[in-house]
Design goal:
Elements (H helix, E strand, L loop, with lengths): L12 H49 L4 E8 L2 E8 L6 E7 L4 E7 L6 E4 L5 E4 L17 E8 L4 E6 L6 E3 L1
Antiparallel strand pairs: 1-2, 1-6, 2-3, 4-5, 4-7, 7-8, 8-9
């Protein structure tokens, strides 16, 4: 004689464990995807800054003087490229979005490095020498830009600028 279970309203322990395992896997996939998306913004911002610096160096070694200014406006990060000190020849490019923190460092030759936050201290007067492509001191100072750091709190990317050659690299 077989016994039939008439009160079958609950879940077994195995069923509960399977559901928890599925939720854990889906949660892990979601968190990993979110991290990849948010870190991509850091990479893109740093790459756009590198391209702006390299473009300014190339243009300066051609026939035009270029002055770069990096700044925050309306929660976004921009770079202005001014040709030949002519205010009517300014190109504004968005390089980053909200949620990113940008800091830059500068130093005198052989001196200590100073770091500033771009959101409170715009970076202006970034120029390159026409003859050699070397980085010039920031306008009106004896300080040279050494690096720009972009972070979102989880990932950090550094744009390095070599003073003597003007070479721009990303770490």
């Amino acid at each position: 004689m077989s016994m039939k279970k008439t009160n079958n309203k609950g879940f077994s322990l195995v069923e509960v464990m399977v559901v928890i395992a599925i939720i854990a896997v889906l949660g892990g996939v979601f968190i990993n995807g979110f991290y990849l998306i948010s870190s991509k913004q850091v990479d893109q911002c740093a790459k756009k800054m590198q391209m702006a610096l390299e473009n300014a160096r190339s243009t300066s070694m051609g026939k035009s003087n270029v002055d770069l200014k990096f700044y925050y406006s309306g929660g976004k990060i921009y770079v202005d490229k001014k040709l030949n000190n002519d205010a009517s020849k300014v190109t504004k490019t968005e390089v980053g979005d909200d949620g990113l923190t940008v800091k830059y460092s500068y130093a005198t030759i052989g001196g200590a490095s100073t770091e500033k936050n771009l959101s409170t201290n715009p970076l202006s007067g970034v120029e390159f020498d026409r003859a050699s492509g070397a980085l010039k001191p920031l306008s009106g100072t004896s300080n040279y830009l050494t690096k720009i750091t972009v972070t979102n709190g989880r990932k950090t990317v550094t744009v390095n600028i070599e003073r003597l050659t003007g070479r721009v690299t990303i770490d």
